[in-house]
Design brief:
With 113 residues, the chain is mainly β. It has no helices and 11 strands. Strands 2, 4, 5, 6, 9, 10 and 11 form a 7-stranded mixed β-sheet that branches. A 4-stranded antiparallel β-sheet has the order 1-3-8-7, with no helix packed on it.
Protein backbone atom coordinates (compact mmCIF):
# COMPACT_ATOMS: atom_id res chain seq x y z
CA UNK A 1 0.00 0.00 0.00
CA UNK A 2 1.18 3.51 -0.77
CA UNK A 3 2.57 5.42 2.18
CA UNK A 4 2.72 9.17 2.64
CA UNK A 5 5.60 10.99 4.26
CA UNK A 6 5.55 14.57 5.47
CA UNK A 7 8.72 16.62 5.75
CA UNK A 8 9.77 20.22 6.20
CA UNK A 9 8.63 20.78 9.75
CA UNK A 10 10.81 22.46 12.34
CA UNK A 11 11.08 25.30 14.79
CA UNK A 12 10.73 28.91 13.72
CA UNK A 13 10.04 32.25 15.30
CA UNK A 14 6.73 33.99 14.89
CA UNK A 15 6.52 35.66 11.51
CA UNK A 16 8.70 33.03 9.90
CA UNK A 17 7.95 30.57 7.13
CA UNK A 18 8.12 26.85 6.51
CA UNK A 19 7.24 24.68 3.55
CA UNK A 20 5.86 21.25 4.25
CA UNK A 21 6.04 18.49 1.68
CA UNK A 22 3.97 15.36 1.33
CA UNK A 23 5.68 12.63 -0.66
CA UNK A 24 4.25 9.23 -1.54
CA UNK A 25 6.32 6.04 -1.44
CA UNK A 26 5.57 5.55 -5.14
CA UNK A 27 3.82 7.40 -7.91
CA UNK A 28 0.14 7.39 -7.15
CA UNK A 29 -3.08 9.06 -8.23
CA UNK A 30 -3.91 9.23 -4.54
CA UNK A 31 -2.11 12.57 -4.59
CA UNK A 32 -4.76 14.22 -6.74
CA UNK A 33 -7.17 15.05 -3.94
CA UNK A 34 -5.29 15.93 -0.80
CA UNK A 35 -5.78 17.63 2.53
CA UNK A 36 -3.51 18.92 5.26
CA UNK A 37 -4.58 18.60 8.88
CA UNK A 38 -2.91 19.53 12.14
CA UNK A 39 -3.18 18.51 15.74
CA UNK A 40 -1.91 20.49 18.69
CA UNK A 41 -1.33 18.87 22.09
CA UNK A 42 -4.61 18.37 23.93
CA UNK A 43 -6.66 19.42 20.93
CA UNK A 44 -8.56 17.60 18.22
CA UNK A 45 -7.15 17.21 14.74
CA UNK A 46 -8.34 20.05 12.53
CA UNK A 47 -8.52 20.70 8.83
CA UNK A 48 -5.97 23.17 7.50
CA UNK A 49 -6.16 23.12 3.74
CA UNK A 50 -7.17 21.01 0.76
CA UNK A 51 -6.65 20.80 -2.97
CA UNK A 52 -8.75 18.71 -5.33
CA UNK A 53 -8.00 17.11 -8.69
CA UNK A 54 -9.00 20.31 -10.50
CA UNK A 55 -6.63 22.39 -8.43
CA UNK A 56 -9.39 24.00 -6.41
CA UNK A 57 -8.08 24.95 -3.00
CA UNK A 58 -9.68 25.70 0.31
CA UNK A 59 -8.39 26.81 3.67
CA UNK A 60 -9.37 27.02 7.27
CA UNK A 61 -10.24 30.56 8.28
CA UNK A 62 -7.35 30.60 10.72
CA UNK A 63 -4.75 30.13 7.98
CA UNK A 64 -6.35 31.78 4.96
CA UNK A 65 -4.05 34.38 3.47
CA UNK A 66 -1.00 32.93 5.21
CA UNK A 67 -0.83 29.33 3.96
CA UNK A 68 -0.77 28.12 0.37
CA UNK A 69 -1.37 24.55 -0.75
CA UNK A 70 -0.07 23.31 -4.07
CA UNK A 71 0.34 20.12 -6.03
CA UNK A 72 3.29 19.37 -8.27
CA UNK A 73 1.92 16.76 -10.62
CA UNK A 74 5.28 16.05 -12.23
CA UNK A 75 6.89 15.30 -8.88
CA UNK A 76 3.71 13.78 -7.48
CA UNK A 77 4.05 15.87 -4.33
CA UNK A 78 1.82 18.19 -2.38
CA UNK A 79 3.13 21.20 -0.51
CA UNK A 80 1.94 23.53 2.19
CA UNK A 81 3.70 26.88 2.19
CA UNK A 82 3.24 28.49 5.58
CA UNK A 83 4.04 32.17 5.96
CA UNK A 84 3.56 34.66 8.78
CA UNK A 85 3.55 31.80 11.24
CA UNK A 86 2.04 32.33 14.66
CA UNK A 87 2.56 30.45 17.93
CA UNK A 88 -0.96 29.08 17.59
CA UNK A 89 0.14 27.29 14.42
CA UNK A 90 2.26 25.00 16.57
CA UNK A 91 1.06 21.45 15.92
CA UNK A 92 1.86 18.22 14.21
CA UNK A 93 0.88 18.48 10.56
CA UNK A 94 -0.44 15.58 8.54
CA UNK A 95 -1.16 15.10 4.87
CA UNK A 96 -4.05 12.91 3.87
CA UNK A 97 -5.33 11.51 0.61
CA UNK A 98 -9.07 11.90 0.25
CA UNK A 99 -9.10 9.60 -2.75
CA UNK A 100 -7.27 6.75 -1.04
CA UNK A 101 -8.02 7.36 2.65
CA UNK A 102 -4.40 7.24 3.73
CA UNK A 103 -2.46 9.45 6.12
CA UNK A 104 1.15 10.28 6.74
CA UNK A 105 2.87 10.07 10.11
CA UNK A 106 3.05 13.82 10.53
CA UNK A 107 5.73 16.47 10.88
CA UNK A 108 6.09 18.77 13.86
CA UNK A 109 5.88 22.53 13.48
CA UNK A 110 6.79 24.69 16.46
CA UNK A 111 6.44 28.47 16.36
CA UNK A 112 7.96 30.47 19.18
CA UNK A 113 7.39 34.09 20.18
Amino acid sequence: QVQLMESGGGSVQAGGSLRLSCTPSEFTYCMFDMNWYRQAPGKEREFVSGIDSLGTTNYAVSVKGRFTISHDEALNKVYLQMDSLKPEDTAKYYCSSVRCSIWGQGTQVTVST
